[in-house]
Amino acid sequence: KEICSIPFDIRLQVNALAANPMDGLLYFQSMDGLYKIDASCKVSKVCSLGMWSVSGGFDHLGRYWTTGGGSGSDTGFVYAIDVNNCDTLKGPIPTDYMLDIVFNMFDCSLYYMGTIAGLSGTASLMRMDTLGNVDPALRWWVVPKTRAYGGIAVGNDGIIYMIGGDDPGLNGKLAVMDTR
Questions:
Q1: Which of 34, 53, 80, 105 could pair with 90 as two cysteines, CB 3.0-4.6 Å apart?
Q2: Cα dist. 141→38, 128, 176 in Å?
Q3: pLDDT at 147
Q4: Of the candidates 162, 82, 76, the residue with the CA atom closest to the CA atom of residue 126
């Protein structure tokens, strides 16, 4: 069920949707900045980020984690942004490929799909703490890097859910990982 529409002038390349646990608002990125949506569907621009990303997620402190600064919207660096003033709180943390960022309150870690060193044609579920340290041991659900990945979410029980994208072998397949 559709509950509201994004104004036409900012609909181009809308992505990186995330819910902020601190203020209860939804945030997303468009080509020209970071936006928020309130409960009455009022959309307002928070700020210009100087980058655009397909990835965005909040941690338990209300920091908006996103990527940018590379050759594409999923490359370059990871940043934690303060949505109250758009200051960079963490980063830049180097990364070469990252899609979707979710925060798991059970282990206070960020999870994302990223590349594995030495396996440039694949992506895997990766874990990063909020200081930017990536766990090199976690290489789970390895998939082809292109066209394979659909989305990632964390349940309120700490279980990570991932769904395959438009790769014929993964389309619609749901995988789970218990991080508790």
A1: 80
A2: 35, 16, 9
A3: 46
A4: 162
